[in-house]
Each structure stands twice: as structure tokens, then as C-alpha cells.
């Protein structure tokens, strides 16, 4: 694996980093020389994966919905490495399945708090802690559920649509010093998507993908690293759809 782009000396914060896309992003950043503050709820998994990365990783377990935890993440980055250059808002939850019309208000609030408002606060904290002065970059992990109606996961899709709006808004507000982009993946082989792929469902899903497979975490992580890097220096406010070609099939 090439080490391009070189991110030596840069410091990143990646949420949801104990597995799946977030872990792959942290691994790719460290491979290219960056230091990474990693956070997730599961302390054991998080510390195990951070230890595997080595000295370039600093784990801090906790709920991303807790404002005090979010602040502590930046305190860790500054105390350990003295700066913050990159933020990857990867956490996304969908605790219920079904139509929005029957969704409990408390579930709606939890989805929006975690998927949108926590990301908003993390960007605000990144600005307060020097990402603008370092001419840094932010990537928000959305979903193709943000781009069309999503039966069964409607509020999740709504929250990811809001995250894309947030991406555009911050891209304008933080320019020219900070670039803000998003990626919108289709199904990726993670614990989050396990219910979608189990029990033979994956085979049923494949005809919707011209590239004939679902995504792997590195399929998303490598474009995220590109968007963070100076190789994407003239990109901001954009959403990169990474879906194996699924969105090309009208009516599927």
C-alpha cells in the first residue's frame, strides 16, 4: 500500500473508530504518518485496535452524544500532539426499523442528536481548537440513504440528509481555511450493515450493484483520506457517492 498522500505530523480525530469504516480510516491515516485520536463506545475493542496501530493512535472511549466527552477528545489531541488538523465524523446510529409515522419521538431525538448535532458540535470544537489555523479538513460520513427515500430507515436517511446540508453550510462558513466534504456510501460490510447482508440477503442485494459486490471499509477509508489530504485542495462542500454503481440503476 502506497503511503501517498504523506500526512506526517498531522493530527486527526476519528469517531466510531473501533471497527468498520472508522477503524479503516484511522488505520489509513496512521499508515500515512498522521497521529489519530480514536473514539468509540466500546473501550475494550477501541483500546485493542489502537494498540495494534501503535504510538500514532490515542484511544478515548465514551459516548459521542456526551458534550463533555467530545470536549475531552480535543483536550487529548492537544495534550498529546499539540494540534488538530483533521476531523472525521463517522458515528451514525439507527436504533429502530420502520416508518417514520410510527417512530417514537425519543428515537427521533436520539438519531438526530447523535448523527447531526454531535457532528455539529465536533466541528465547532475543532474550530475552537485550531483546525482553522492549521488549514485543516473535515469529512462527514453520510449514506446513500441521504439521497432518496429509505424505507424502514427513514429518520436515519433524514439525519444523513441533514449531515450533507451541514457539510455544505460549514464548507462556506469555514472557507477558505478549512475544507469540508462528505462521502455517501452504499452497503459496506460492517457490523452496522450486518442485518442487511445476513441470511442470504447479500446475494439478493448484488444485482443492484454494477460492480457486483458490497463495499469493504477500505473502499470508503481511502477516498476519505484523499478528501482530507492536500490532493483534494480545491474540493469543498462536495459529497462523494461511493456505492459500487448502485445509484446508476434507475428504478432499482
How does the overall form come out from the CA principal axes?
globular
CATH topology: Rossmann fold
Rounded radius of gyration (Å): 17 Å
- What does the average pLDDT come to? 93
**Share in helix:** 40-55%
Q: How are helices and strands ordered from N to C?
A: EHEHEHEHEHEHHHE
| Structural class by secondary-structure content | alpha/beta
Number of helices: 8
| Residue windows where pLDDT falls under 50 for at least 5 positions | none
CATH class descriptor name = Alpha Beta
Number of strands: 7
Q: Cα distance, first to last residue?
A: 35 Å
CATH level-4 homologous superfamily: NAD(P)-binding Rossmann-like Domain
Number of domains: 1
What is the CATH-assigned architecture? Answer: 3-Layer(aba) Sandwich
The neighbouring-strand order within the major sheet is 3-2-1-4-5-6-7
How big a fraction of the residues is strand? 5-15%
Main beta sheet, described? 7 strands, parallel
What does this structure look like?
- The chain contains eight helices and seven strands.
- With 252 residues, it is α/β, with parallel strands linked by helices.
- It has one domain (11-243): Rossmann fold (3-Layer(aba) Sandwich), CATH 3.40.50.720.
- It has a seven-stranded parallel beta sheet, sandwiched between helices.
- Helix 5 links the parallel strand 5 (137-141) and strand 6 (179-185).
- Helix 1 packs across helix 8 and helix 4 (105-128) runs parallel beside helix 5.
- It starts with 10 loop residues before the first strand and ends in a 10-residue tail after the last strand.
- The mean pLDDT is 93.
